[in-house]
Amino acid sequence: MIAGFDTRARTAGLMPSAPVLIFGIVPLVGMLIVALAGPSLLTTDPNGQTLLNAYAGPSAEYLLGADHLGRSIAARTIAGARTSLGLAVVSVAASLLTGLLLGFASAFFGGWTRQIIARIGDVIIACPSLLFVILVSGLLGGGGGPILFGLWMSQWPSFARLAAAVSARELNSDHVETSRLLGFRPGYLFTAHVLPAILPYLISLGVLAVGSNVLTISSVGFLGIGLRPPDAEWGAMIAETMTFFRTAPHMVLAPAGAILVCTLSATLVGEYYSARRQGLEESEL
Amino acid sequence: MMLARELLRALAGYVLAAAAVALAVATLAFAAVQLAPGDIAFRVAEARYGENMTVRSVDRIREAADLDKPVAVQYLRWVEAVFTGDLGRSIVSHRPVTPEVWRGFRSTLGVTALGVSLALGIGLVLGFAAGFRRDSLLDRGFLATSAMLSSVPPFLIGMMLITLFAIRLHWLPAAGANLPGYYVLPSFTLALALLPDLARVVRNSAVRTMHEFFPTYARIKGQSWPRIVVFHALRPTLVPIIAFFGPLIAHAIGGLVVIDVLFNLDGLGTVLIDSVLNADIPLATGAGLFIGLFVVTVTATTDILVRLLDPRTVSREAGA
Amino acid sequence: MIIRNSLNVVFAALALALTCSPGFALDDRVLQIASPREITSLDPQDTGFHFRRLRVAETLVTTDPQGNLVPQLAESWQVSEDGLTWTFDIRDGVKFHDGSVLTADWVADRFSTFAEQGNLIATLPIEVVEAGDGTVVFKLEKPFSLVPAFLTDATSIILAPSSYASDGTVTQIVGTGPYRVEVIDGKKAADLAAFDDYWGEPANIGKVHFIGATGQDTLANLAESGQADLILGLPQVLRDRVEASGNVRIKQLQTGRILGLLFNSTDPRFDDVGERQAVSLALDRAGISTALFRNPDAAANQLFSPAFPDWHVSGAPDIGWDIDEAKRLLAEAGWTSGEDGVLVNDEGLRFSVEVIVGPQPELQAMSQVVQAQLREVGIDVDLVSGSYAQVAETAANDTLALGLARRAYGMAPDPVGTLLVDYLAENSDNAVWGGINFTDPDLQTAFADYLGATNEEQTASARGRILEIMNGALPILPLAWYDYNVAISDRVDFDSVPVDALELSFWIDRVAWAD
To answer: Does C361 reach chain A within 8 Å, measured CB to CB?
Structure first.
């Protein structure tokens, strides 16, 4: 009963205001759908080359023009959604889950567990995340796997720290003490008490992380150690075509626009929930 | 006295953590080089001789750099070298590691310092202004613009700046570090990349202070506004901003790699990346060590500053 | 209020800073040059060619912009009747940048160490090098007509004794050229100043600043913004963009460098000449050259480009794009189409090849095109992003099945130099880019004949045979010839900039300002 009351109060503010909805949630969800639907939306092969049509501008045949190898930019941008955005989301989900579990464990068990997890986390946070991803991805020859691994490795400590902090606060609070004394197991404490408390933080941090990951993936693609060719990826597309920016700008604008929309919408949503949480906190003071 | 003892303990903890972190980061670089697919000697030969490599030159490299010894031996040799302070020479260029890393750091330092200062200057001004007038038109506009700016990848920002200032207007150099004003565009790019997050932290901190402070202000009424700001509002507002310094610097160093590539600067990030990709173990571990130590130092300094400025944070859990 | 005032201050400061700075210096006194190579080390085997290009260091023999051999540190040379003794007269009165004098003893001393390094020199069958009276004498184990050509090898640049540390490594570049090194800043920048005591004609321009920029976009930016006076080695694909910016003109030459495919001649997928020819026919060279290099003439119809007039068979037909013929050749070699469209042979082996692709942009682009086009004839290419070193490694240890590589045949003025390095049987352990498991005794005979030739007729005959084998058996399949582009800003006198197809030198000592 008490737990239920807390949950409701804390998750009450999940519905966003109008501008955030239009500029944040709608584009984000839209892009996610495009990423998921992926290949079925494509009528042209994103890797199909027609060298004769290289550098072609937008036309009836090529909606957004063709790149330097005659591939349809529209098709590649859509295909890129699956890689750039998809990879970002998956890595955040992985980091989130790991961080959540490890953070809760460190708060619940304390002692050596907490020390070890905290120290490892400190070591990882010391290394700038882009550098980390570059190291891992560059050495292992690029590709989705190494990038995913690099992103996950560099991000879970942030979630773990957050989870540990909130878990510690919750576990020390009176009603959780009560639950504990009543003999409820850690699993229940986690799902009933800690999880609802963490949720608002997680949403904002997670969505922001998706936005930042899209940027990191595109930066790594730009540096040339991203996903393997010929798969489309927004950052790599920009790197491949940016030398022709002044003569054929359409090749850069589509993927750049895609990165912008993705990151922007993620940031708007993330910031909004972060502000909401702050508002809730203030109202509790 | 309690505070001093706590500070000392924290300091000791940080020194230990610094050593552990630096060692770990440099070990990561060593491991990363070892894990690379393909023969390390070939990587070094390609970096050195390019297409003109011969099998004999590869063998020579392998012998000279002990690359044919087992990994454990190489690692132990390296650990020994680090603790005796001699980081050796780059396998690729044969130049001593420490001056090389230091040179990279110096070019990184100039641009980073300038970029961070710019971001701080503009961020503090804009953030405070927006925060103190929360939900005003200014605040909303600020949030929207900052969200948009943080969504543009730093390499795009750099590209656009180069196109405008170097190619169209011919005001500033497009690359390199020899012509006057070369630092302007890279540091501007860095500043623009760091600005949104920093300004948001400032703004949120200002908002929080205003909220916490407002009731108190009502009680202190009668005191002049500037006096209140300086003596009461400033310190708690600055705390989260200073605490953000660590992540900020880490973010900056990460972004510098991209800026180094765009502007052809020989910065620390590029030194690390190139050395890792070339399997240049001494240089890679030297650079990794340096970056690790640097970030830990910044984090430690800001943490101690925070503790000094606001002892409450010691007991308050570090929330998001 | 606060914000408006603060912003005003910030903008005012910015404006002040920008107007006070002199913009970037359009300094008439320093020639700004850039090229895609960095100064990765001071090892002559690594950057010898670079310091020679920068006119800081010199070799015994060099070439002129037309590719003819000319004397440099050696004034003249003679060969004995039996072809086994070569005598080089060392020029008198040559000073190093630190003031010391060049002696024949020192040169002979240097050559005793060069044999272990370098590509060309290592292939010379030298028995002993001795110093004579102002001469250096090379005693050979067998006749070798290319000794002077091989002495253009940049790893044999002669540096002063003060350049070397006690363990033999180079600590500074003290050469004999018209420019001396003032400062080397890291690997991306160097400052040069004219050397007053140069033995030959002094340089026109007193100061040079060199920028090493590996990023394509950076090079183009340097040209377009006018920051660099000369871009030496502008990638072909940037030509249009740089030319369109105005204020920059481009000189273009076809070089002896190729972009091509390496085959493993004992791999069941490529052991038949028909298979290799099929791959050749399946690729649309004209389309590739136009799209990737913006130059249809870059399509290679043979191994040697017009940069080597003696070796280039002018009037040879272009290799057409013939998918049907390619399929027929593959079928003849025993390949039939499998269910997924990929070819399968009698033993059930799928014609699927893994190709490691280096990070260089033109390799990346080319590999994707090759992959797409070979798919049309049923060859499945799996691209793996890796370092170029891995390509070299697999080529050296003969595990490479198919590889995309660049090869420069202009290492010496005579392309046979590179061929010897790659294909000479005695050198096969040391060769990296040679034919993979490619052995042809006729080729070795032709080499021997070429080196032992005493007249033009014998040379031409041996040359013909070599060409037939290289262009016919296709141990390496040329796809495109690289162009060498020099972007020249209007501050520089366009006609004063020589360019050479062998890319041996930047010729900066001959460059003059436009006024």
So the answer is: yes
CB atoms within 10 A of CB C11: 10
Q: For residues B151 and C420, what is the distance between their CA atoms, to the nearest angstrom? A: 55
Mean pLDDT per 10-residue section of chain C, whose length is 515 residues: 52 46 50 91 88 95 91 93 92 94 93 78 86 92 90 91 89 94 89 93 92 85 89 87 86 90 88 89 88 84 89 85 90 87 86 86 84 89 83 88 89 88 85 84 91 88 92 90 92 92 92 88
Chain C CB contacts of B95 under 8 Å are 41
How many other C-beta atoms are found inside a 10 Å radius of the C-beta of residue C423? 25
Cβ atoms A62, A43 nearer than 8 A: no
All residues at 6 or more sequence positions from B52 whose CB lies less than 8 Å from its CB, including other chains = C45, C49, C119, C155, C411
Closest-CA residue in chain C for B188? Answer: C14
- Name the pTM for this structure: 0.82
Q: How many C-beta atoms lie closer than 10 Å to residue A157's C-beta?
A: 24
Q: How many helices (H) and strands (E) does chain C have?
A: 15, 18
Q: What H or E segment, with its residue span, contains residue C251?
A: strand C248-263
The predicted pLDDT at position C201 comes to 92
- Find the closest chain A residue to B27 by CA distance: A123
Tens of pLDDT along B73-87?
Answer: 888 877 777 666 677
Question: Which of C496, C505, C438, C427 lies closest to C469, judged by CA?
Answer: C438
User: How many angstroms separate the CA atoms of A173 and C486, rounded?
Assistant: 73
The torsion angles phi and psi of C135, rounded to 5 degrees, stand at: -130, 160
Residue whose pair of structure tokens reads 């061929």 in the numeric block: C419
Per CB-CB distance under 8 Å, the chain A contacts of C241 are 243-244, 246-247
Using beta carbons and an 8 Å cutoff, which residues of A are at the interface with C?
A: 47-49, 51-52, 54, 68-70, 141-143, 224-225, 228-230, 240, 242-244, 246-247
Are residues C391 and C403 in contact, defined by beta-carbon separation less than 8 angstroms? yes
Share in percent of chain B as helix, strand, coil (round to 5):
80, 0, 20
Other Cβ atoms within 10 Å of B73 Cβ, number: 11
Sign, Cα dihedral of B36, B38, B42, B47? negative
- Residue C374 contacts A, CB cutoff 8 Å: no
CB C421 within 8 A of CB C427: yes
Under an 8 A CB cutoff, do B261 and A235 touch? no
Instruction: Strand C85-90: give its sheet, edge to edge.
Output: C74-79, C85-90, C135-140, C126-131
CB atoms within 10 A of CB C97: 24
- Residue C499's identity, in one-letter code, is V
Distance CA B253, CA A60 (A): 44
**H/E segment holding residue A30:** helix A26-37
Question: Which residues have C-beta within 8 Å of that of residue C141, sequence separation ≥ 6?
Answer: C84, C125, C126, C127
- Using a CB-CB cut-off of 8 Å, the residues of chain A touching B273 are 131, 134-135, 138, 223
List of chain B residues whose C-beta atoms are within 8 Å of the C-beta of residue A123 = 20-21, 24-25
Q: Which chains touch A (3 or more CB pairs under 8 A)?
A: B, C
pLDDT tops 50 at residue A12: no
Give the H/E segment covering residue C419.
Answer: helix C416-423
Q: Is the peptide bond before A230 cis (omega within 30 degrees of 0)?
A: yes
**Distance separating alpha carbons of residues B162 and B258, to the nearest angstrom:** 14
Cα separation of C238 and C258, whole Å? 18
Nearest-CA neighbor of A150 among A228, A95, A100? A95
Q: What's the CA gap between A280 and A9, in Å, rounded?
A: 9
Nearest Cα residue to C89 out of C101, C106, C71: C71
